[in-house]
Automatic annotation (TrEMBL):
Residues 618-628 have a biased composition (Basic and acidic residues). This is Rho GTPase-activating protein 10. SMART domains: PH (SM00233), RhoGAP (SM00324). It comes from Rhabdornis inornatus. Residues 384-569 form the Rho-GAP domain.
């Protein structure tokens, strides 16, 4: 409930409740006064901060421009490189915003500070003065009344009448002042609503003008933002897959560290405490060393290292081992000890202490010491094989999925109940019951159970479908190179797979391509399928964190397979393409924006995504259509190269049109400046003396608004002419400006 109204009639009663209501109004005005005082303080701080804001924003932009993300491993994905370069784009955006701020300078003092100060001084200050008068008159009135009531009745009548008149006059004056004060209190309560808010509204109106300019900048920035969001989403999806694999590996190692020991050239390595003997009477000390032993050469090395001293490393010591013996408990007052003897110090054993009895047994076995204990590692054999039953299982599952659940949301990402999945697998992998299982018509098996069973079968193979041997070779092209070189390398490597592996992979990838065609309904884009099937089809022979960091590149390989399955499986690789590992590629970690500025775009074919553009013939001057739904924005990793000018796949290039599919645009859109406008250039053969006769049938191409992009195109179509359909304004000294109708010939303007 709000404040109670102050009735004028209550001024004459001056009851306790009236006084309580007056105090409530006074408290509210005091709160308003404090609010305005704080608001004025904050407003003045805002003015001071505004003077430094431009410098702070520019410094922030400078920090964004100079920072570069470090990555784990030896290469980045295209998405990661675009994300890395995004900080430079953000820096440019902030610089443009600061230019608008300087143009739209706002006078905060005139719109906010002065009106509020005037209201506080003239209105709230006046009420304070009225309150002082009211409190003073109250004290005077009731003091006089008490004095009057204390007069003796024995006083003369004339004196008593004079006293009565004086009290009555004072009371009337008090009532008049009380009425005026009550009126003022209620007036100011109503006045504050517009007197306070109107200056704030004016202040915000000025801000809105500035923000409108920011909105215009944001619209220009929107195309880059949309492409970057897809880069980020792809990276996040790969991160989720990588994180689960890392956690799974961590838990495996936590349960049994010895079974997951990394393979290296040392037979045994780890920390041991080494006894260092001192002259009497100082006894001996035990120093922690990191020890490494190679059984083939009998070489034992140890390095003193103390974690508590900041990780200081001492001098390494190396010797050739002669023998190792266990120390019994009755010969030393420490547990878990054993002696080593070096070949250069015969008869002078070195005593070492392990961390536990089990640790000592491991060292004793590795060092061929007495009482060595053999460790039996569990080897898990899977019954899954690439045999007739295996092909039957995959074909039955694929047929059921395409019949019953091709449009199910989250297909292959939603997992089935583990017990049901195991039961289905056991039935399918049994030759007696496999053919009896009806997956297409039975309601007993949910689609998620079928998809989980198929993934589990593929993961249960003794060797991944794309083999341990070729794992590293598949990863290499995914880390670097142009889109075309990546596809060619994967194409080449797929045909190096064993026949059964390649046949099974073809069946599966063809199905995944079909799933991706229904991405609008099932939400399983090519990128999402890569996240799911990357670890399923590819895995390294040794599980390490470094190998898990390559999961994102496994996903890219799967994306390339899906997007190019017709070429990869239906055609033979180029006979001249025999060295996919030594391909000439651009540096994998070069930011795309930087490489464009340095004129290196020639090393990377124009690759774009996420839009479907159809370019009309030269004479129509039509703008590109952008009507591809968001659901088709599926992959940013396997980039389709720009079609050759002399020939192109069916449906991409006809006599008058070049149609770029969703795999043709992201490399351009993600590298455009914030406010650039693409230029359209028509490339023309000039075989006859009459060039105009050939113009009507010429294809039209889009190129980025930069000198490097145009130069790249002109180099690739030597001895040709180009006519500019739209003007282009350079944004950098290294770029080219030209007007409508400008003619380019052999790369010259």
């Amino acid at each position: 409930m709000g404040l109670q109204p102050l009735e004028f009639s209550d001024c004459y009663l001056d009851s306790p409740w009236f006084r309580e209501r007056v105090r409530a109004h006074e408290a509210e005005l005091e709160k308003t006064n404090k609010f305005i005082k704080e608001l004025l303080k904050d407003g003045k701080n805002l003015i001071a901060a505004t003077k430094n804001l431009s410098a702070a924003q520019r410094k922030f932009a400078h920090s964004l421009r100079d920072f570069k993300f470090e990555f784990i491993g030896d290469a980045e994905t295209d998405d990661e490189r675009y994300i890395d370069a995004s900080l430079h784009e953000f820096s440019n955006f902030l610089k443009n915003l600061e230019e608008q701020r300087e143009i739209l300078a706002l006078s905060v003092t005139e719109t906010l500070i002065k009106p509020l100060e005037r209201f506080r001084k003239e209105q709230l200050g006046a009420v304070k003065e009225e309150k002082k008068k009211f409190d003073k008159e109250t004290e005077k009135n009731y003091s006089l009344l008490e004095k009057h009531l204390n007069l003796s009745a024995k006083k003369k009548e004339l004196q008593l009448q004079e006293a009565d008149n004086q009290v009555e006059q004072n009371r009337k004056h008090f009532y008049e002042l009380s009425l005026e004060y009550v009126c003022k209190l209620q007036e100011i309560q109503e006045r504050k609503k517009f007197e306070c808010v109107e200056p704030v509204l004016s202040f915000f109106q000025g801000l809105f003008t500035f923000y409108h300019q920011g909105y215009e900048l944001a619209k220009d920035f929107n195309h880059y933002k949309m492409a970057l969001q897809i880069n980020i989403q792809n990276t996040r999806n790969r991160f989720e897959g990588t994180r689960s694999e890392v956690e799974e590996l961590m838990n495996k190692i936590r349960r049994n560290p010895q079974e997951h020991k990394r393979a290296n050239h040392f037979t045994m390595e780890g920390y041991l405490y080494v006894q260092e003997k001192r002259p009497a009477p100082f006894g001996s000390s035990w120093v922690k060393h990191y020890c490494m032993y190679r059984k083939e050469t009998k070489k034992f090395s140890m390095i003193p290292f103390e974690h508590r001293s900041g990780g200081k490393v001492g001098d390494a010591e190396l010797f050739v081992l002669t023998y190792c013996t266990k120390r019994n408990a009755d010969t030393i007052d420490r547990r878990f000890c054993f002696d080593l003897e070096a070949s250069d110090r015969p008869g002078v054993p070195v005593t070492m202490q392990a961390f536990s009895e089990e640790d000592r047994k491991l060292w004793m076995e590795a060092l061929d010491g007495k009482e060595a204990v053999s460790i039996i590692f569990k080897i898990l054999f899977y019954s899954a094989q690439l045999d007739k039953i295996g092909f039957t299982i995959i074909k039955k599952c694929i047929s059921a999925v395409e019949t019953r659940g091709i449009n199910d949301q989250g297909l292959y990402r939603v997992v089935g109940v583990s017990s049901k999945v195991q039961r289905l697998l056991s039935l399918l992998m049994d030759s007696k019951t496999c053919n009896e299982v009806d997956l297409e018509n039975s309601v007993d098996w949910e689609v998620k159970t079928i998809t989980s069973a198929m993934k589990q079968y593929l993961r249960s193979l003794p060797e991944p479908l794309m083999t341990y041997e070729l794992h590293g070779e598949f990863i290499v092209p995914a880390k670097s190179g142009s889109p075309e070189s990546r596809v060619n390398a994967v194409h080449f490597l797929v045909h190096k797979l064993p026949e059964k592996n390649r046949e099974m992979l073809e069946i599966l990838v063809k199905h995944l391509a079909n799933v991706s065609k229904h991405a609008k309904r099932n939400l399983m884009t090519v990128a999402n399928l890569g996240v799911v099937f990357g670890p399923t089809l590819m895995r390294p022979q040794e599980e390490t964190v470094a190998a898990i960091m390559d999961l994102k590149f496994q996903n890219i390989v799967v994306e390339i397979l899906i997007e190019n399955h017709e070429k990869i499986f239906k055609t033979l690789p180029d006979a001249t393409f025999t060295e996919p590992i030594s391909m000439s590629v651009s540096p994998p970690n070069a930011p795309p924006r930087q490489s464009r500025r340095q004129g290196q775009r020639i090393k990377r074919p124009l690759a774009v995504y996420n839009l479907c553009l159809e370019l009309d013939d030269v004479d129509s001057h039509s703008s590109p259509r952008e009507d591809t739904p968001t659901g088709s924005m599926d992959s940013l990793s396997s980039q389709s190269p720009t079609p050759a000018f002399s020939s192109s796949p069916p449906g991409l290039l006809d006599e008058n049109h070049l149609i770029m599919n969703s795999g043709d645009l992201a490399g351009w859109t993600t590298n455009l400046p914030a406010q650039s406008r693409p230029s359209m250039v028509s490339w023309m053969n000039v075989p006859s003396a009459n060039p105009a006769a050939t113009n009507a049938a010429l294809p039209t191409f889009f190129f980025p608004n930069s000198a490097t992009g145009t130069d790249t195109a002109m180099e690739s179509v030597a001895h040709r002419k180009a006519r500019a359909v739209y003007p282009c304004e350079a944004e950098h000294s290294s770029e080219l400006s030209f007007q409508i109708g400008a003619i380019f010939e052999d790369g010259k303007y």
